[in-house]
Design a protein that fits this description.
Blueprint (H helix, E strand, L loop, with lengths): L4 H13 L13 E7 L4 E2 L4 E7 L6 E8 L18 E7 L1 H7 L9 E7 L6 E7 L1
Parallel strand pairs: 1-7
Antiparallel strand pairs: 1-2, 3-4, 3-5, 5-6
Length: 131
């Protein structure tokens, strides 16, 4: 087995052994994300991201939380239970900072994912791949 395959295999085994890896997202947040680094085949650990919500009036983004992805490429607790309400949310991923920490250049300085949530949605999972 090649030396690069061992970390990927360990990460995959860890992911599959966790509740998150079996598709059961933690109940601690109604909004979850998972970032994968397809260049390495591993979860994107340490990627800075921020969650914002579009204001009800004035159409300005309000930052709700800034955090980093964990060793599994997830960011638990993005939005505390009970705080999700209908509206437009945006996740901002600092891809340039992620690649700089790895000694590489980034084609995209950042990636934004925006989504509208209707009243009846109980939770949302957004998955992102870095290449």
């Amino acid at each position: 087995m090649s030396s690069g395959a061992v970390p990927r295999l360990c990460a995959l085994q860890r992911l599959l052994g966790s509740p998150e890896g079996r598709g059961m997202e933690p109940a601690s947040s109604p909004l979850t994300t998972h970032v994968l680094d397809t260049a390495s085949g591993l979860p994107a650990q340490g990627l800075c991201l921020s969650l914002s919500r579009l204001g009800d009036h004035g159409q300005q983004w309000m930052e709700l939380r800034k955090s980093y992805t964990d060793p599994d490429g997830r960011c638990p607790g993005l939005l505390p239970p009970g705080q999700m309400k209908a509206g437009t949310y945006k996740l901002f991923f600092d891809t340039e900072g992620y690649w700089k920490k790895r000694g590489q250049e980034s084609f995209y300085p950042y990636v934004e994912q925006a989504t509208g949530l209707p009243v009846h949605v109980k939770g949302l999972h957004l998955q992102t791949r870095q290449t």
